[in-house]
């Protein structure tokens, strides 16, 4: 031991004396030139030992490899790529004094990739010695600004110089002091957009015949301006397809607007079209003049564009990477070969099914009312025009699917509103039920259905009505299972839909008494003494009562009057009549009969309750009965008086746990005035999201005004803001809100007439028209409302814009009677302006099997939300918090790879790439972690006292036994 301490003392002194005085001009070694507090040497034969690091700077060119050894004998120093485990560079040092650095200049410097993991090692060989530095005793040790130290590494078992170091001897030590020298060169950096795999048809030539964008990448100049030129870009192909046969041409375009799409303004980057000379070969594409010289810190975007020859088979894949950049003179290139771009996959299924069906079960009464069971779209991804021949749905659930439906109907979203509207959407087909319990329905499309063109998409709705026989508590579900395209049966992508299983469907509620208002749904203009046609009176309320699951005893029906007319004095008679002949039409007496033995002739007071005692009070289970409340007018009502009625309540003996559902208010008669019915017109925009940051104009709604009777005149509108936005400050001054009269074609365009522009107001915005709008009786007029939103809207918190006409007085009608259906406000859909940002993604590292729950935090989130990792959609059902700042409910998909791109699409916003990446565990590759301990090698001699103290401390240190597996060697 004494000989060892003396030898160690003189070795340390010798190491300090022989340490280089400074780095070469282009050498940036990781260690500083300072003597570490403690160095150890160990007897371990045939190991690769060193450390793992991350390259954090583009343009890093390794020029030298070096190490420190105990014995001064030659060592093999190796630089490994941790992702591929391949050797990047290797050199053998010469002999030199013990405990000193020795450096070897590489014949061919190598470029490292930014954000890539590497490790540098020395091989002990048969000399069986390597050096270790204790990081805890050397707090001065730091990596350079371009390198992030990860951890110490070693081979698990003795190997050879080419063995990747897959183990570790201790996180607090540098094992095998090896290092590299490098320089930062002004180079070109390649960054590939991995993107998502695009499914294409083998014989198609892309949009407009211009080809498919098979990859997108950028090239940036790093550091100083380039003195040379970029001569060519080499693209390497991979995948299962045959790259030499399946393409008719390959080219590179300059993506001028950096949108990763081939647009009219994009430029040819190479002078002509080329091809791959072999399968998985490389095409070297020369650049045209004007595309070769880069300015300082300039980034340019490029597209790889290919045309298919038609020889590819279904399922063939084509991926691409930028293999190399050729510059004159050779100024260096980092990032090449680039990450692999997902590219293309061929298919014979041009139709794509995209499912929007709600994921949660709903309750539906068995009252023959409509329920939206499935919501999906069909998109023709490519190819010539095609037509869908039929779609097939299967039934699931505990209900009897052949008997419990009144109808199962398929609609097409004819007005492209994105939501089901029975008044405007087109019925494709209808059936009274499925072929059997848990059977199927096949809807055949009519010949009049439009053809699909490439990229065309139509939305469809499967709508069901449950019959009175549907039992309480039964469940009903459906699933789209098959489709047939008319011109060639080549199938659909995305079927069956929903992919996870049948639609959540409905739970039948069948123990209630439900009221359905049949009419009047629009007001009738009459004289104040009218008794109706053939003295049968005028309809005040037409309702149907349906009982479910049990018998109901109703002794009386109670109707509530409303409107501006005096219901106690306006009528000469008031009658409740039952639809005895069950034809659904009020025919008068004697076809229909009085429902009461005696009844009052009017309401007991204005806006009072009329109680009609039924002469037949029994409602059998599953029975529906229709009643008409009609009146004759006595002549006392005044011009403009309105009379509206709703079935408000019932009296009698009710089943246990039953529920009565009151009816809505009718649109009864109006006295001697034109009536203006207000609603949203077909094609009125749906809910939408926009991102903050720039001024924009937005069509919020189309309001429809329908006039009955005499002509009407509109002179202005008063809107109430129901959104969170401040309409006075978040809209442009002077013309924040505009009103435009539609020219009759139902499309907002240049041919429409501007009625006014005004400032937005909070909470009320008044839009007086520059010129009145005349509406003849029996016609409609549509008015578009346009918002001019300023850039700062939605900048701090999401702003929502929603406008409502809440009361008839909100419509300046010039003496006409304004009617709101069901006495409900007419409300536009919502525009949300948000700051779409992602602040945190958890986790960012996971198992290759996937399954970890994902949490995304940020702002501007809304449903639907789709998250993808490396182009793979994350399974699950997204849940967004009310404040739009967190997404949960999604899970990591199975996969592999490191630093994979993560993309997020929420609401109506464009898909965005997250600022953070995701990595899968790859076997025993050492995972990067935060490590602040450091180590350095001195650049000059230390004072003698310091050396002596160091030797004494080393002697004390050596008394500690740290590992039984290591052997102390006497020098």
Q: Can you give keywords for this protein?
A:
971 residues; mainly beta; six-stranded mixed sheet; 2 helices; elongated; disordered N terminus; disordered C terminus
SSE order and pairing:
Elements: H1 2-18, E1 39-43, E2 48-55, E3 60-68, E4 76-81, E5 87-92, E6 101-111, E7 117-123, E8 129-134, E9 147-154, E10 173-175, E11 178-184, E12 188-193, E13 198-200, E14 212-221, E15 229-238, E16 247-254, E17 267-268, E18 282-286, E19 299-308, E20 317-328, E21 333-334, E22 341-346, E23 351-355, E24 362-365, E25 370-380, E26 388-396, E27 405-412, E28 426-431, E29 440-444, E30 457-466, E31 475-485, E32 492-493, E33 506-509, E34 512-519, E35 525-526, E36 538-547, E37 552-562, E38 571-578, E39 593-594, E40 609-613, E41 618-619, E42 624-633, E43 644-653, E44 659-661, E45 670-671, E46 675-680, E47 688-691, E48 696-708, E49 712-721, E50 737-741, E51 753-758, E52 764-775, E53 780-789, E54 799-801, E55 803-805, E56 811-812, E57 817-819, E58 826-827, E59 831-834, E60 837-842, E61 845-846, E62 853-859, E63 865-869, E64 872-873, E65 876-880, E66 886-891, E67 902-906, E68 912-913, E69 919-920, H2 944-958
Parallel strand pairs: 12-21, 13-22, 23-32, 24-33, 34-44, 35-45, 46-57, 47-59, 61-69
Antiparallel strand pairs: 1-8, 2-7, 2-9, 3-6, 3-11, 4-5, 4-7, 8-10, 12-14, 14-19, 15-18, 15-20, 16-17, 16-19, 20-22, 23-25, 25-30, 26-29, 26-31, 27-28, 27-30, 31-33, 34-36, 36-42, 37-40, 37-41, 37-43, 38-39, 38-42, 46-48, 48-53, 49-52, 49-55, 49-56, 50-51, 50-53, 54-59, 55-58, 60-62, 62-66, ...
Helix pairs in contact: 1-2
């Amino acid at each position: 031991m004494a000989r060892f301490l003396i030898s160690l003392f003189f070795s340390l002194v010798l190491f300090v004396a022989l340490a280089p005085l400074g780095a070469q001009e282009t050498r940036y070694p990781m260690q500083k030139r300072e003597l570490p507090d403690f160095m150890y040497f160990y007897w371990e034969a045939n190991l690769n030992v060193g450390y793992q690091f991350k390259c954090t700077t583009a343009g890093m060119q390794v020029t030298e490899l070096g190490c420190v050894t105990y014995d001064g004998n030659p060592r093999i120093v190796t630089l490994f790529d941790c992702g591929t485990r391949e050797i990047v560079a290797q050199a053998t040092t010469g002999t030199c004094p013990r405990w000193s650095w020795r450096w070897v200049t590489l014949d061919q410097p190598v470029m490292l990739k930014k954000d890539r993991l590497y490790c540098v090692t020395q091989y002990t060989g048969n000399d069986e010695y390597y050096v270790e530095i204790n990081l805890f005793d050397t707090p001065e040790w730091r990596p350079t600004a371009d390198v992030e130290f990860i951890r110490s590494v070693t081979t698990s078992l003795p190997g050879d110089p080419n063995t990747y170091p897959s183990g570790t001897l201790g996180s607090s030590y540098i094992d095998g002091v090896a290092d590299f020298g490098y320089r930062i060169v002004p180079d070109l950096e390649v960054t590939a957009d991995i993107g998502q795999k695009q499914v294409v048809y083998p014989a198609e030539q892309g949009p407009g015949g211009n080809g498919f964008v098979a990859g997108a990448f950028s090239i940036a100049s790093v550091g100083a301006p380039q003195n040379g030129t970029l001569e060519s870009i080499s693209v390497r192909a991979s995948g299962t397809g045959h790259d030499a046969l399946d393409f008719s041409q390959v080219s590179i375009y300059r993506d001028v607007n950096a949108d990763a799409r081939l647009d009219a303004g994009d430029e040819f980057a190479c002078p002509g079209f080329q091809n791959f000379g072999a399968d998985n070969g490389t095409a070297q594409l020369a650049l045209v003049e004007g595309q070769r010289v880069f300015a300082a810190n300039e980034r340019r975007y490029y597209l790889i564009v290919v045309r298919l020859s038609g020889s590819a088979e279904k399922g063939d894949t084509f991926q691409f990477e930028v293999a190399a950049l050729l510059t004159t003179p050779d100024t260096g290139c980092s990032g090449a070969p680039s990450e692999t771009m997902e590219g293309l996959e061929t298919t014979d299924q041009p139709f794509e099914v995209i499912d929007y069906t709600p994921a949660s079960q709903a309750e539906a009464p068995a009252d023959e009312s409509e329920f939206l069971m499935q919501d999906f779209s069909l998109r023709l991804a490519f190819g010539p025009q095609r037509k869908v021949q039929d779609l097939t749905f299967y039934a699931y659930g505990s209900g009897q699917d052949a008997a419990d439906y009144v109808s199962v109907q398929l609609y097409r979203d004819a007005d492209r509103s994105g939501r089901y509207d029975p008044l405007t959407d087109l019925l494709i087909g209808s059936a009274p039920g499925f072929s059997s319990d848990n059977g199927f329905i096949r809807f055949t499309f009519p010949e009049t259905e439009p053809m699909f063109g490439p990229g065309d998409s139509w939305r469809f709705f499967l709508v069901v009505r449950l019959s009175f026989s549907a039992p309480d508590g039964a469940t009903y579900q459906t699933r789209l299972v098959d489709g047939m395209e008319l011109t060639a049966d080549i199938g659909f992508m995305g079927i069956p839909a929903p992919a996870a299983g049948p639609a959540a469907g409905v739970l039948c509620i069948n123990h209630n008494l439900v009221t359905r208002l049949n009419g009047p749904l629009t007001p009738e203009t009459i004289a104040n003494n009218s008794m109706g046609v053939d003295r049968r009176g005028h309809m005040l309320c037409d309702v149907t009562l349906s009982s479910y699951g049990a018998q109901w005893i109703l002794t009386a029906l109670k109707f509530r009057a409303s409107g501006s007319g005096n219901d106690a004095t306006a009528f000469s008679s008031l009658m409740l009549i039952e639809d005895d002949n069950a034809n659904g039409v009020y025919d008068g007496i004697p076809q229909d009969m009085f429902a009461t033995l005696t009844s009052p002739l009017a309401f007991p007071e204005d806006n009072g309750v009329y109680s009609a005692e039924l002469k037949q009070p029994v409602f059998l289970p599953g029975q529906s009965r229709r009643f008409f409340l009609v009146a004759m007018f006595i002549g006392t009502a005044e011009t403009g008086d309105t009379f509206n009625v709703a079935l408000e309540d019932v009296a009698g003996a009710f089943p246990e746990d039953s529920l009565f559902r009151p009816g809505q208010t009718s649109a009864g008669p109006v006295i001697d005035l034109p009536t203006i019915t207000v609603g949203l017109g077909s094609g009125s925009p749906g809910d939408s999201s926009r991102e903050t940051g720039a001024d924009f104009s937005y069509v919020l709604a189309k309001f429809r005004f329908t006039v009955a009777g005499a002509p009407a005149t509109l002179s202005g509108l008063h809107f109430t803001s129901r959104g969170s936005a401040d309409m006075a400050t978040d809209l442009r001054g002077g013309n924040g809100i505009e009103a435009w009269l539609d020219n009759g074609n139902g499309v907002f365009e240049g041919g429409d007439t501007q009625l006014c522009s005004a400032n937005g107001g909070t909470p009320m915005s008044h839009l007086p028209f520059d010129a009145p709008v005349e509406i003849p009786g029996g016609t409609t007029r549509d008015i578009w409302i346009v918002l001019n939103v300023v850039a700062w809207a939605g900048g701090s918190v999401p702003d929502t814009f929603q406008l409502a006409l809440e009361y008839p007085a909100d419509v300046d009608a010039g003496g006409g009677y304004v009617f709101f259906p069901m006495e409900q406000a007419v409300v536009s859909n919502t525009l949300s302006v948000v700051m779409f940002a992602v602040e945190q993604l958890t986790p960012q590292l996971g198992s290759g099997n996937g399954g970890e729950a994902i949490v995304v935090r940020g702002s501007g989130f809304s449903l639907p939300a789709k998250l993808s990792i490396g182009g793979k959609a994350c399974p699950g059902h997204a849940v967004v918090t009310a404040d739009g700042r967190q997404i949960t409910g999604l899970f990591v998909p199975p996969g592999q790879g490191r630093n994979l791109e993560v993309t997020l699409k929420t609401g109506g916003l464009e898909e965005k790439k997250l600022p953070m990446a995701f990595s899968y565990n790859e076997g025993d590759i050492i995972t990067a972690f935060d490590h602040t301990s450091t180590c350095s090698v001195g650049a000059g001699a230390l004072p003698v006292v310091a050396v002596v103290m160091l030797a004494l401390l080393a002697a004390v240190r050596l008394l500690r036994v740290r590992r039984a597996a290591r052997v102390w060697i006497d020098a």
